[in-house]
Write a structure and sequence with these properties.
Helices cover 51% and strands 8% of the residues. A four-stranded mixed β-sheet has the order 1-2-7-4. Strand 5 and strand 6 form a beta hairpin.
Amino acid sequence: MIYLLLQWYIILPVLLCLFYWHGTRNFSHWRKLGVKHIPPEFFFGNIRKRVLFRVSFHELQKELYFSFAGERVAGIYEGRRPVLMVRDPELIRLVMVRDFDHFVDRPVLRFRQRPSVSNMLISLQGAQWKSVRAILTPTFTSGKIKSMSLLVMDVGKQMVSFLNNLIDKPDGCEMEMKDFFGRFTLDVIASCAFGVQCDSLQSPDAEFAAYAGKFNDIPLHERMIIFTVLLFCPQLARFLPLSFMNKGVLNFLESVVRDTKERRIKEGIRRNDFLQLMIDALESEKDEEKSVLNEDIVIAQAILFLLAGFETSSTVLCFTAFELALNPDIQSKLREEISRVLEKHGGECNYDAVQEMEYLDMVIHESMRKHPPVARMDRKCTKEYAIPDTNITLKPDASVTIPVMGLHYDSQYYPDPERFDPLRFSSEEKAKRSPYVYLPFGSGPRNCIGARFALTSTKMALVYFLQDFGVEPCSKTKIPYAYSKFSMLLKADKGIWLNIKRLANCSNHH
């Protein structure tokens, strides 16, 4: 017994020392390279506030960015992992565009995942990413988006009829906007990516809506394991059968895509949606010897459409509504443009009409500047790279981050950054600053492939909504708003409540 105790007296301190050494051995990385950095803390690096949920992900990124004012690059530690923050717009251009061949991949945490997750475009690397991206790119041309916009118009009309039935009092109706626009976005994605008529506005308990709502519901213990692996030993990930997505939801979505695909091929049904474009690409590749696509890859992209499009687009819509409620003059000016342009198009909110609305474009871009759904863009160095005009050389596997949230709030690019001012995105103002200080969709070959579709559907939602309805603050509106500390993506803490009123001169023409 005494012998065993003695053994533990020796083994335990050795294990603790090894644990401490493993957790801190990278902590001299930035000092050795002569890169400005914040001294890291054991286990947390520089992100303790985030790990303990004291601050939102977006606020932390902003704080880190402003800790290094005047620096072109800076070093941070996420747990024990060193990450290079690139702050200078010209260096951002090099990383994302000119020298992209050195930064082809994203630093994805690779768990032992099913094909519908591991084959998502966002997860693919190197040559496989390049070939799948090349096949997907034609599905997002303006012509294809114009065809799909007809499906978005159907959902827009459903939204207006839902509101007409709901709002029967002249003083309007209080509504949580994230939930409301979440249903619109979900219906658009269900229709375009899965070929499913969801109508979650009228039927919030519809099967597709119920499953999609549980997309990120994973048990707390799994979340804690993922967080610890991410901070301490990402190499372990590929041995663990974990996922950021609920397994039951994945099963459901996989079967929806598979069933729809089989039914369309068997019955010769065609529809102007993303899934059809993927099925066509899959069928045309069948005869080729070196085919890139298979059913798993098609299913993965449909699920990615939901994963990448749902939270982001609905967040942009609800924060845009919030800013319009607080700025009634901007709301009126936007509504005037909408009425003027729609009159030219016979009152129809179609693709061409929406493309003509310049002020609408400015409003949405200013909303995404203030509230970018994604706080930063990450890249992984894939071959050695000497950063120009510095003595820093990045080795393969080094992590690089582009601080989107910080750039969007930097007063040297955006004077008085807290103010909501769509005119920042007039062509004259845009010409005065680098395009690399506004990055809601990233940039370069690995930018968001669905950006134009997302913008089109978001604009259509606002046009349908603002034609007949107005928004204003209500008793539940939280001013100032706070971002949720428990989400990686942008979310308002306790939601965004506004009062929706039917306009006095409302046309009710739908």
